[in-house]
TrEMBL record:
Protein name, per record: Small ribosomal subunit protein mS29
Keywords: Mitochondrion, Ribonucleoprotein, Ribosomal protein, Transit peptide
Signal peptide interval: none
Subcellular location: Mitochondrion
The organism of origin for this protein: Exidia glandulosa HHB12029
Region (Disordered): 1-52
InterPro entries recorded: P-loop_NTPase, Ribosomal_mS29
GO cellular component: mitochondrial small ribosomal subunit
Sequence ranges of Basic and acidic residues compositional bias: 26-49
Amino acid sequence: MSVARARVPALARGISSTAPRCKKVGAPDKKDRERIRQEQDKANKDRANSARLARARGDDWVDSGYQPQMGRIILDRKRGRHRFPDPVATPPKPFNGRLPGWDRLKDFGTEHLEIGKPTFFPTGPKDPIPIFGVPRSLENDFRLLGKPASVTRQCTLDIVEFLKSLKEEKPRAEHRIITGSNGSGKSYTLLQAVHRAAQEGWIVVYVPRALDLVKNVSDYIYDRRTRTFFQPQASREILQRIVDGNALLRRTLSGNTYKMAEAGIQESSTAPEALQAVLTNLGQQTTTPVLIAVDEVQALYSTSWYKDPYFKDIEACHLSVPRLLLEFASGRKELQRGAFLGAYTTTNTHFPLPLVLLEAADAELEKPAGPWDPRPEHLKAYISKDLKGFHLHNRGAISDKEAIGMYELWQLAQAVPASNTERTFMNAYMSSSGNPRAFIMDGLLRAMEV
């Protein structure tokens, strides 16, 4: 009787007694739990493979735990709700491979370059890699190898000859974009050019991760005078790396400009103006060649993740650092002696390649473009009339000598099995169609999976 009376009010209000309970606010649903579980399984598998490689090399393996990518939602089991990771990326750990075979490799800068010959990048305190860093894809490769290394290719010889002609001939400026398919080695070629230029007395300005300049991971403030958004922290970091990575900078710059650079490093609020003054002074002088190298260059021509006061996306050309790099890429700012080199990535769908950049560099398009495809006018203003594409040899496909060199390099890292070497090599080479990334990741490393 009492039970029936208790149910009457609920039924009278139209509420079923068997209705499901309301979901707790902030609690992850089934799809979120499944996605988090898949991410954890993938991270555990990658960590196990890295540990196996480290034990094979004799390295000390340190398990850093499960760390999702920046921007992913993490499940906080203690509090039972979602939390977001710290947007500040942790600094990369140094490369410390200890393999007996590394003694046979020569320095990339001092060794005579020969196609198919593996060489290692120096990592001294004044070398480009410890100061400027490397792109994300190359960082993953170097962690598996245990040491930054590469193989000399035909495109390596071409870009070294290109830099040599700029240094020895009459002072002039060149604007080039390294073109090629996905995984063809554009970032490797750009890094080789940076190392070669640094060891031949160039002043190098290297930005390996241009996407970080537009991903809203640093502070920004609107400047009424220039009508742009200043990026004090990003400007200070780039300025610090330019000063640390170039020993010739003090005698190349004028006294007041160098003092301004030091002031910008000490006080981040003055860093944007100091960075602009330093690069402008470097572009106007003709005593020392200057190389401005930007990887992930399509980020400069995209819409950033920064927001204006009306919560609208800010164009990258309205941010101080991307705009400064674009002015050198387009020739708006003078570069009397040197070159602007860029390389793009096709794997990031959030920042796609603009069609105007591909057409200006005469790059091979993945699909035909018609007159109805978007070609923003404000992007055309930041593309130099003298822009040319630095096309990788044979569209980036590796030759048999280059493939053998890559195989030898990854054998030194003990990342490929010692048995069935000929079969492993041929299977990887034929299935990849000569693509370097597919040859390594989908071919050689796939053979070691248990």
